[in-house]
Amino acid sequence: MLKKIPIEQLRLGMHLHALEGSWLDHPFWKTKFVLREQGDLDKLIASGVQACWIDSSKGRDVEPQAAKAAPTPTATTAAPTPAAPAVLTQATSLSHEVKRAAVLVAKSKQAVTALFNDARLGNAVDAERCLPLVDEIASSVYRNPSAMISLARLKTHDDYSYMHSVAVCALMVSLARQLGMDDTATRDAGLAGLLHDMGKAVMPTDVLNKPGKLTDDEFKVMKAHPLRGYEMLREGGTATEGALDVCLHHHEKIDGSGYPHGLRGEQISLLAKMGAVCDVYDAITSNRPYKNGWDPAESIRKMAEWRGGHFDDVVFQAFVRSLGIYPVGSLVRMQSGRLAVVCEQNPESLVSPKVKVFFSTRSQLHIPPELLDLSSSACSDRIAARESNAQWKFTHLEELWAGPESLKRHGVTA
Predict the structure, then answer these.
(1) Are 312 and 196 in a shared domain?
(2) Which stretches does the entry tag as region Disordered (predicted)?
(3) Is 14 found in the same domain as 139?
């Protein structure tokens, strides 16, 4: 029997079914477990969460005296309603949203790490537990897509597998929104992105984290991860059909050269086509044990060369519109000869984002950073070309667009 109780009535031995309030306020990323540790109970009481749901059929019930003393919230047999899909919220600037997104990215990493660890231990993957996280990511993307997407791109070698899932979730939400999907379909796309690489949780760690090119035998082992992930999600029994499909087919290619089934063209679902684009973009823009990530704008250019064989044209074009031709964090050369980093998109013009100039190629010296809105009629400078930071090796590009405070919250040192 499910009962809603004030958090003060929670006791060791109770089966915690759900928590009220925002997911970001919760001390745990998941629920549906018996409280056995005093430390966990102390975290809940100190978290500020006002009420929770317990299942008295699976654990300790409320003391009769406590139930009489606190009639509100009332005990009930009604289950808490599932978290509603994310709804469009008021748009915010990147500088404002990036601070909130930094907190969300850090907590998302904890949640996905725990999810992978559970799967590695053989525990069933409960996709429903991920929905509050998907909703929080979707809300951030709706307020300003560049903040969450760009921060999630900043990974270390050690946390790539976990943060890749968070990044692909955010990219899928943004792409779904660009394609005009409704809230329910967008939520499904986000969940599919979060769970698409679950099979890697059971891949051999020496192969998964190998700092170099895989041998043919090792690559054969890694190619099993879509099917293993699909089987794990199916056994869990709570994943949507969309999440199952993307997990199994995000490595399929339009020309039929992908795996595991060699699907081609219209044999691949829309969600799987979306998953393929989002998965590749985050992979090539992220630092890996064996290579540094490519610049975001350079990655878009390279992916454009692969479309038709690798990606669906319509999906890829929508993906570019969702990110911008020059995604946030891109290094660009201005017509004035200055170098700049892209700081924010202009939805009305993909070629006129806000940029921060910081270096003169003429004097070969750093200059005081200056923010330019290229869409303003008062701004005479324009982007002349993409630049690769592999040549320049600037170490502070992320700080220029995100700010040191947000990077610190995210766990990145500039």
Answers:
(1) yes
(2) 62-81
(3) no
Question: Which strands make up the sheet holding 354-360, listed edge to edge?
Answer: 365-373, 354-360, 338-344, 331-334, 383-386
Give the tokens for residue 195. 């769970």
End position of a domain, from candidates 277, 295, 323? 323
Query: What pLDDT is recorded for position 202?
Result: 95
End-to-end Cα distance, the chain: 51
Number of other residues whose CB lies within 10 A of the CB of residue 307: 18
Question: For residue 344, is it within any domain?
Answer: yes
**Residue written as token pair 């999907």:** 181
d(CA 49, CA 407): 27
Q: Counting runs of H as helices and runs of E as strands, what totals does the chain give?
A: 17, 9
Alpha carbon 157 to its chain's center: 17
Instruction: Say what angle helices 270-285 and 241-249 make with each other, to 10 degrees.
Output: 50
The DSSP secondary-structure symbol of 237 reads S
Please give the model's pTM, rounded to 2 decimal places.
0.82
**Residues facing 331 on adjacent strands:** 341
Residue appearing with tokens 């709570």: 238
241-253 per-position pLDDT tens digit: 999 999 999 999 9
- Return d(Cα 248, Cα 228) in angstroms, integer: 8
Q: Is residue 275 a contact partner of residue 192, using CB atoms and an 8 Å limit?
A: yes
For the chain, the helix, strand and coil percentages under 3-state DSSP, each to the nearest 5: 50, 10, 40
